[in-house]
Amino acid sequence: MSTDHTSTTDLTTQPSTLASELFAPGVGAQAGPPTSPAADTGSAGEATPGAHSHGGPTPTGSPAERFTSTDPDAFGVPTGREETWRFTPMKRVRPLLDGAPSDAHLVWETDLPEGVELTSVEADDPLLKGLPEPADRLAALTRQRSGGAAVVRVPKEAQLDRPVVLGLAGTGGDDVVWGQLVVEVGAFAKATIVLDHSGLARYSGGVAVLVGDSAQVTLVSVQDWAPGSVHGGQYDAVVGRDATFKQVVVTLGGDLVRLVSNVQYAGPGGSAELFGVYFADETQHQEHRLWVDHAVPNCRSNVLYKGALQGEEARTVWIGDVRIRPAATGTETYELNRNLVLTDGARADSVPNLEIETGEIVGAGHASATGRFDDEQLFYLCSRGIDAETARRLVVRGFFADVVQHIGIDTLQDRLMGTIEARLGALPGLDDQEVVPA
């Protein structure tokens, strides 16, 4: 059974032991986005094998059929007509897709708790050869041009007393920075890793997180780039038996940010939570694509992304794909994307997709909603003496806060909410909009 829908609002109208264990035979291959838009919303509690779509045109293919390769030439050069690239402004991403070799780099600032190791490996290292394959030309170029990878290793049973923080800052220049990072977390360990991107750069980065059996890992990726930055990336998580993986993506800065996040399960009992916050201002393009591949029994996934847009030509894209394979009995999954459009001239595209190939699941569903303020909330606040402008800002802050809190680091949460509030402070005309009861 396959359900998908499109929602669009346009208001102008070293050792590689762990890797080899996680990539044992039977681990599902990656897949990708739906091949055509369809209906408005969908959910499923049980399904029978086979494929079905509802509302809108019939898909021309399955998300599970997406091609992967480490060879950039195997993908060809995108034109913008391909499903994978049809939402992306090709002119802006072209400097990355051209794939020119470069020695440019980001400036790293690290904070490593005791016991955590930061090393590097060459391109021919078995660790890299065992990673999930790139899902598009840009990811393949990144793997090829990086010439190796930085590797963060958290030993088994380690209980880190503070986050691993990698500050990655751009220093300007037109050359593309190519980067690959692998995070290995041993069995029964508990760790939080923060990737904090800032400065001015053209950056294409790959991140692979290998979560050992019964480990608990949180990955936080902050895109707080300077204006003019372009960032493309593929994030892969492989979740071990009875392990827990949580990813929180926060995208605020840059001219264009396009991130592809993939999750695979290497054993039963795994859990993955994917959270995201994005706020696009005038002319910014922020695109988040997710793929969750349930290929083994008794695993769980939960996806919640929230976005806000303001200003002329602000654009966000969210694609969420979940596949439940025949062997993935006992799966429980849900995904939700919500977008809040603050001004005319902004556009949000949202495409959740769910493909179910077994009826023996706990539950599965998806939903997407895009709209303006909740007038009922606003009226409630205004009826208690709060002016309309302040009321609207409170609603937006509350909209984001329940996702940001999943980071679990107070100082970082406060910083990010401060950035969001500064954006809201620059939002004109809220006090001119009438508030009426719903």
Automatic annotation (TrEMBL):
Boundaries of every SUF system FeS cluster assembly SufBD core domain copy: 174-399
Region (Disordered): 1-80
Pfam families: SUFBD_core
Single GO BP term: iron-sulfur cluster assembly
Low complexity compositional bias, start-end: 1-18
InterPro entries: Fe-S_cluster_assembly_SufBD (IPR055346), SUF_FeS_clus_asmbl_SufBD_core (IPR000825), SUF_FeS_clus_asmbl_SufBD_sf (IPR037284), SUF_FeS_clus_asmbl_SufD (IPR011542)
NCBIfam families: sufD
Family: Belongs to the iron-sulfur cluster assembly SufBD family.
Protein's name according to its UniProt entry: Fe-S cluster assembly protein SufD
Organism (species): Blastococcus colisei
